[in-house]
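[job 0412] stage=fold_complex status=start
inputs:
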Amino acid sequence: MAQKTPLYDEHTKLNGKMVSFAGFSLPIQYTDITQEHMAVRNKAGIFDVSHMGELTISGKDALKTLNYVLPSDITTLAPGKVRYMPILNQNGGIVDDVLVYCFSTERYRLVVNAANIEKDESWILQNIIGDTQIKNISDTMGLIALQGPVSYEILKNLVSEEHIPKGFFSFVENAQLEEVVCLISRTGYTGSFGYEIYCNSEDTVYVWQKLMEVGTPAGLLPCGLGARDTLRMEACMPLYGQEISDDITPFEASLDFTIKMSKPTNFIGKDALEKKGAPKRIRVGLKVIGRGIVRGESKIILDEKEVGVTTSGTFMPYMNAAYAMGMVDIAHTKIGTVVDIDVRGRKVQGEVVPMPFYRL
Amino acid sequence: MENPTNLKYSKDHEWLKEEGDKVTVGITYFAQDQLGSLVFVNLPEVGDEITKGEPFCDVESVKAVSDVYSPVSGIVSAINEDLLDNPEKINDDPYDAWFIQVEQITETEELLTAEQYEDFCKEEA
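[job 0412] stage=fold_complex status=done
writing structure:
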């Protein structure tokens, strides 16, 4: 049976169409995916992302452990800052993609995909160094994403100025949201301006209701997993299991910016990435120029030869056109390259275009 | 929305307008509402043979692709090309946004009246 998040009753009250996702019962949509997507781009949307996992890494050697387990240079991650990166396995493949929150060099939080919580926890445990503790606090945390251009206007009704994080990928711990204490970060999975708000499970309904109350007059709409997926696709953010997986390297996934090969200390996956050298295939963006919608797992064809496969795609509501992402042989990844995509036996033309499709 | 009484309905949520030996086919208000905002329609070609109970076309929303089943067997004599560029017309006015016209009909599914179809939808919902 699917687990319920603290907001389950709120979703059913709002007529959310509930589906099972990564072991949780969550709304795929409330009214309409397109409408919810556009609310985030033009006004604001509120998402229940309480299914996401949170791991606390603490101890005198927490930094040392993370700098070995993670491919980014954690020594340059300052307290109050957040960074996005993959966790790599020994082959350079991606165990998961995570957000790393730094409280101090002795305390960090990793925010991980719901489906990977146990896998990540045991992987870090296997590679732990010295005085480091890892604790899975997922079941005690609620997480609400407030995304869209008017998010600040909404939040400032409930949170005082100095408790609202200013810089992109910064956060404020112990932010007072009316009667409850939260962690607020300027992060999100939509490509729009916005915040993510972590609170205790038992405070999640309170935070949701408060945001709905002050946000609704400003155009805030509750948004489901459907819009979350279309928004992340429009912003070309990878989804674990589609664009990234255990046997895709970060260079293949076009996540080069997350890897610091030159950092002074060794990290898991570094040797394998060095041995592999330049990737033979990489993730690219494709704009559909023929008639049709391209989704994941469609063959990409050039001159009758298979040169890749799509990983996800759909009609992008804000861009008002169909786009997809795919893994393509490096020789055919130049911007402007025109390919055929096999959509259930029908060939639809696509063109390699820069990512992201939507840029704030 | 009211289902027009001059039309007949299939249990797969298509509407049919019978004029002489020609039938015009579209999808119902209930169907488009279940599918959500449509962003693409893949119609058959004029001259294609279609078979009762089998898909003759697919419609795509942001979320998913769905087949549309033919309520008749026959030959496609016209398609509504306007829908290829403006699939949202199916959501805006499903009883005006016809998909295809069929002639040389050899078989027709058991069809419902507007009233029977409304009862059928209530059971499905």
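[job 0412] summary: The helical segments of chain A are 8-13, 33-42, 62-69, 117-126, 151-155, 204-215, 225-234, 270-276.
[job 0412] exit 0
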